[in-house]
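Hey, I was hoping to borrow your eyes for a little while. No rush at all, and the record is pasted right below:
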Amino acid sequence: MDTTKMMDAALNLANLDKMPNDCGIVVPGKGIKNVLMGVDMDTAELLLAKQLGFDCVVSHHPRNTHPDMLDVLDDHIFKLEKLGVPRNKAQKALAARKDELCYNQHVSNSRRSESAAKLLKMPYISLHTPADLIGEAIVQKFLDKKFAKKPETKLEDITKALEGIGEYKNSTRKPVIRVGSKDSYAGKIYVLMSGLTGPGASVLKAYFDGGVGTLVMMHIPEKDAKDLKEQNIGNVIIAGHMSSDSLGMNAIADKWRENGVKVTMMSGVIAGK
């Protein structure tokens, strides 16, 4: 395979027709047969790949900063619209978080690992939103099957059920309840693992306003959890960061393997089998 076909396979699995701005073929390559893949792959991992004879490195988290990467956050606007939250209301709720991230992005060393990959002549790609969407869909389907039409479902039922998925079962960091208690009724369960990063408490509140009872997420800052507890209108379960990222990465790797590519996992990827 070449890096374009590898990217296309990931996009197809995620039902995307174009590459989101938090992904990239950082250094293109052809004849890829031996891939080193991880959640965070930077200069050290590139050097390791070169030393061990790999011919491509794949990172989940973005390794170069697209100038329009923050537009991926707008996915939250469209998710909320499907839940009945007006587009303009969702946009305003998201504005402060986008502004905060813009400050952080502006000072980042956005070409650090890209420059290393080019010096090493190492093909290098990053896959963020596709993997997140795949993982999100896997967990939503799993929970829907378990708890559809079961109004008595409580948060403890969900955290226990999640360990029926290999990546969560095999992780040292198990699913936890961050907002609510084990005896809290779940209500509508909504898995939110895409959209670049955590959208902030105002946007999460908008999901509850849209009828969601429990959000299942990868991670949440303590300050956002505190804000949501004070609002006292919904629940948040954190499934786990590395384990949730691993869901999509493992699915993509399996698709590449079907095309004859050897994929070795490291740097945070948790086996699902």
Q: What stands out?
A: The mean pLDDT is 95.
